[in-house]
Design a protein that fits this description.
- The structure is a single chain.
- By secondary structure, this protein is mainly beta.
- It folds into 3 domains: about 5-70, no CATH class; about 105-315, Sulfite Oxidase, Chain A, domain 2; about 320-430, Immunoglobulin-like (Sandwich), CATH 2.60.40.650.
- About 10% of the residues lie in helices and about 30% in strands.
- It contains 6 helices and 25 strands.
- Strands 8, 9, 11, 12 and 13 form a 5-stranded antiparallel beta sheet that branches.
- α1 (about 10-15) packs across α2.
- The longest helix has 11 residues, at about 40-50.
- It starts with 9 loop residues before the first helix and ends with a strand.
- The chain binds ligand MTE and molybdenum atom.
- The site of molybdenum atom (MO) has 7 residues, from loops.
Length: about 425
Amino acid sequence: MSKGPAERGLFEVYDRDPERADDLVFGRRADAGRRGFLKGAGLASMGAMLGAAIPFHRNMPSGFLPVALAATAEIKGKDGLRLVNDRPINAETPAHLLDDAVTPTARHFIRNNGNPPENMDADKWVVTIDGEVDKPLKLTIADLKKNFPVVKQALWIECAGNGRSFFDPPVSGGQWTYGAVGCSQWTGVRLADVLKAAGVKKSAVYTGHEGADTHLSGDPKKVTLSRGLPIAKATDPSVLIAFEQNGAALHAQNGAPLRLVAPGYPGSCSQKWLTRVWVREKVHDGEKMGGSSYRVPNRPVEPGAKVDSKDYVIIGEMPVKSLITSPMTGTKGAGREIEVRGHAWSGSGDVAELAVSYDFGQTWHKAQLDKPANPFAWQNWRTKLTVPQAGYYEIWARATSGKGVSQPHMPVWNPRGYVNSAMHRVSVTVA
Ligand SMILES: Nc1nc2c(c(=O)[nH]1)N[C@H]1C(S)=C(S)[C@@H](COP(=O)(O)O)O[C@H]1N2
Ligand SMILES: [Mo]
């Protein structure tokens, strides 16, 4: 192992070589070859996870997998999230905890590429709009509220890597299962209105987004993530510069005090801790816009194949997808009548139909599917199923978009494990 926990998350380090990881995290005293204290990056990341310092960290016995690495993360202001990585902090929400029509802040997942900024002053926050515009702008949050119509919208954000853990052969990266998606209610101003005030020039092609988080390496010259949107998407009225999440300040891990929310596109287009929207005369070439980042092969490839950089395309609209939030998978002793609930969403806008099956796809039952609360809110659905007898069942959900595209059974393999839109399956044992 060449890199210590300063470069990798504890999860990854422990995964590869638990004994060596323990040395790295707790340190090995050079003189006696004995283990020392929890320190350095290990201590720092554990403190970040807990949202507090660890006064007695010197007493923590080495050789133990720190309890903070248990499956459920104790992240301040979050409830029941499962840690996917600790450095940077990445955490997903178990499907049954996403049952609410609008996702509470405490249940909204966290996907960080770097270290969130600390001690931000919302009153002094400034976002710059520049590049291919007639009139570059520097706006405080108060300016945004004063100069533009303030709107409140439920908008879903899904990480393009959601479902990555189900690829075969496996692919590296955050091993998300189902829960890197959420639909909070966001308050903000439309990016379209702000761009209009700046006067977007005819030469504009793309936006490029910048945020205030810092690189894991600590190198101030390195950028964590800077993605962008085609101008047509950036000026869609659903894309917000948001300063509130569910009627309160944004959660620190979800981009406080200011972020973009660009529903329909990969979550990475929703820049957190937003400091700049740079209007570009070409496709934005910021960090994680090239290579295999947020890009998929331009044609189907054999699972496990290597793909040349020139054969990738940037992920645009996310696929149609759905989630079963009740019953919880693994439910035992259910009655024969089962109420099934969940959400459905699609990057092309609307979901036209949601059907469920309890016989491995032989028959499908249309659920009652709500209209979205506003464009790009996920759509809530529910139905009652009556299964014929006691036994093991799987409930499958299949959403179909307004364009007539349905969810597949299996993900379409790609080298980085993006856009897995395979149907969600939950298991239920009926008594
Ligand atoms: N500045 C910044 N913005 C960011 C990220 C990041 O690492 N830094 N991660 C992106 C990714 S990959 C996703 S999926 C979403 C996740 O938003 P959330 O953490 O609020 O759920 O934020 C995006 N915005
Ligand atoms: Mo993401």
